[in-house]
């Protein structure tokens, strides 16, 4: 297949972290790469040491009714499974220099990839809603301001960082990583110290079902990052060792996810999850509680900017030829508008349904990407093929759609319960894992008759007269 010319990239900003990033879905030229894999550890640690992680952990005890020890075990399993995928996908960023969704054009094709890009925009909007609401809860507790002004203040702070772009996001996450370790260490002292071994509510279902649901919900939370993973490693030099990239990304995500998720489970044993910020403040002394809530507000903002940034990038990967900051504003605007509506509902139910809904798509999608690039030694690093307009469709989309059809009887949400989930609740919790297995097997079978692409050196994307803003 003849390669089309790679898209050109705009001039750099002389490394100024406050300059708006101008690059979009183009490959990052090899002579503009920088950084070390360690930066991914602080980024994914900072992204996961946040209020949403705490709230999802609290679901395990305060909503699903697991006792503390099995809840922590379920959180650890779900976090480890999905964080490993984040690490695996991050390892392809330095090899290709392109966005995660541009890489997905390989198994899906340019047109077959459009549903993936659309879903990623929806995922970015959805997480913007969740995190914005958490920030609004904190602002209202701290200042007493009404819902509307708090919502606008959160939206302005989130968009300011996301519009600036990649380098500013790394700066923010790196700075917060140190602060949040100190803050959550203090919260852990009180949260684990006052935790009770038993759940405060009756089990959602039998013990096995509740355990599997917590694994699924926790895995779905981290899976949301998988569609973005290479977006934050594509600036690393091509010489960055894949093993180190994997360990940095997966390690930072796992460490933070297990720690903060377990802390949420511990705090969740003290009462039902209603207003998440009051859930934290009630276990802390007043002065410390205020400092912790301020830090949680910053961590929530830092998490949301990743979703806004990559949600905007997804629109560019779909083929929209607009400046990068335009879709970021659109995603942020939609998230803010929906936050107004969602903020007057049941937060715990909203969070649970959203996590499972995203997981039903992301589990099959990640399976296709995994098989396409790692099993068995299929992946090509030929970037030019990803930009060839004649590569319209691949077997990725049929495999994902088949998996979603298989998942439907397993679905278990407040608005819809599939027949298998209704008859046997334990089976409902297996929907995500079933979708992953079906999609991976389907894609491997559909592509078995085709020649496996040989691994080739990464395309040299250097262009003497241009460079990507970092």
Textual characterization of the structure:
With 470 residues, this protein is mainly alpha-helical. It has helices at 38-48, 51-62, 68-90, 92-96, 100-103, 105-108, 114-143, 147-164, 166-194, 207-226, 242-268, 276-281, 286-317, 325-342, 347-374, 383-386, 396-407, 419-423, 425-428, 431-446. Helices cover 66% and strands 0% of the residues.
Characterize this entry briefly.
The chain has 470 residues and is mostly helical. It has helices spanning 38-48, 51-62, 68-90, 92-96, 100-103, 105-108, 114-143, 147-164, 166-194, 207-226, 242-268, 276-281, 286-317, 325-342, 347-374, 383-386, 396-407, 419-423, 425-428, 431-446.
Largest sheet: none
CATH topology of the domain at 30-103 and 164-285 and 338-446: Hydantoin permease
Distance between the termini: 31 Å
Oligomer: single chain
- Uncertain spans, ≥5 residues at pLDDT below 50? 1-5, 452-470
Overall mean pLDDT: 82
Write down how many β-strands occur, each being a DSSP E stretch of 2 or more residues.
0
Backbone shape: globular
- The class by helix and strand makeup works out as mainly alpha
Rg over alpha carbons: 21 Å
Provide the CATH superfamily of the domain at 30-103 and 164-285 and 338-446: Hydantoin permease
- Give the CATH level 1 class of the domain at 30-103 and 164-285 and 338-446: Mainly Alpha
Q: What pattern of helices and strands is seen along the backbone?
A: HHHHHHHHHHHHHHHHHHHH
Measured by DSSP, the beta-strand proportion falls in under 5%
Q: How much helicity do the residues have?
A: 55-70%
Number of helices: 20
């Amino acid at each position: 297949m003849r390669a089309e010319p790679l898209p050109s990239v705009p001039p750099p900003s002389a490394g100024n972290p406050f300059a708006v990033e101008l690059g979009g879905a183009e490959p990052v030229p090899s002579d503009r790469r920088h950084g070390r894999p360690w930066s991914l550890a602080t980024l994914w640690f900072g992204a996961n040491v946040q209020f949403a992680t705490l709230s999802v952990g609290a679901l395990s005890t305060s909503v699903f009714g697991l006792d503390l020890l099995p809840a922590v075990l379920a959180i650890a399993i779900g976090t480890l499974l999905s964080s490993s995928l984040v690490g695996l996908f991050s390892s392809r960023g330095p090899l290709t220099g392109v966005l995660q969704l541009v890489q997905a054009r390989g198994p899906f094709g340019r047109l077959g990839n459009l549903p993936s890009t659309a879903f990623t925009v929806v995922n970015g909007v959805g997480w913007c809603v969740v995190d914005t609401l958490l920030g609004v809860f904190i602002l209202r507790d701290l200042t007493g301001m009404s819902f509307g002004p708090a919502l606008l203040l959160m939206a302005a702070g989130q968009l300011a960082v996301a519009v600036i772009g990649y380098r500013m996001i790394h700066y923010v996450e790196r700075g917060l990583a140190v602060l949040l370790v100190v803050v959550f260490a203090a919260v852990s002292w009180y949260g684990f110290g006052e935790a009770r071994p038993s759940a405060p509510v009756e089990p959602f279902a039998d013990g096995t079902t509740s355990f599997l649901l917590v694994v699924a919900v926790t895995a779905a939370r981290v899976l949301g990052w998988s569609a973005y993973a290479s977006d934050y490693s594509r600036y690393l030099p091509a010489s960055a060792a894949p093993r180190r990239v994997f360990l940095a990304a997966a390690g930072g995500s796992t460490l933070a996810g297990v720690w903060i998720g377990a802390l949420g489970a511990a705090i969740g044993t003290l009462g039902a999850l209603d207003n998440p910020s009051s859930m934290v403040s009630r276990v802390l002394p007043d002065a410390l509680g205020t400092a912790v809530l301020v830090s949680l507000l910053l961590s929530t903002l830092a998490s949301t900017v990743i979703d806004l940034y990559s949600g905007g990038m997804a629109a560019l990967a779909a083929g929209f030829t607009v400046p990068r900051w335009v879709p970021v504003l659109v995603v942020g605007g939609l998230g803010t508008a929906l936050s107004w509506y969602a903020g007057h509902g049941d937060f715990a139910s909203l969070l649970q349904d959203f996590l499972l809904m995203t997981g039903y798509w992301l589990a099959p999608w990640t399976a296709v990407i995994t098989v396409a690039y790692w099993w068995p030694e299929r992946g090509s690093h030929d970037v030019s093929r990803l930009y060839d307009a004649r590569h319209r469709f691949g077997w990725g989309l049929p495999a994902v759609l088949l998996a979603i059809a298989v998942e439907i009887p397993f679905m278990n949400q407040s608005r819809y319960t599939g027949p298998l989930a209704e008859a046997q609740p334990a089976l409902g919790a297996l929907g995500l894992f079933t979708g992953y297995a079906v999609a991976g097997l389907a894609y491997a079978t559909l592509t078995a008759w085709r020649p496996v692409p040989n691994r080739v050196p990464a395309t040299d994307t250097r262009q003497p007269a241009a460079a990507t803003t970092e």
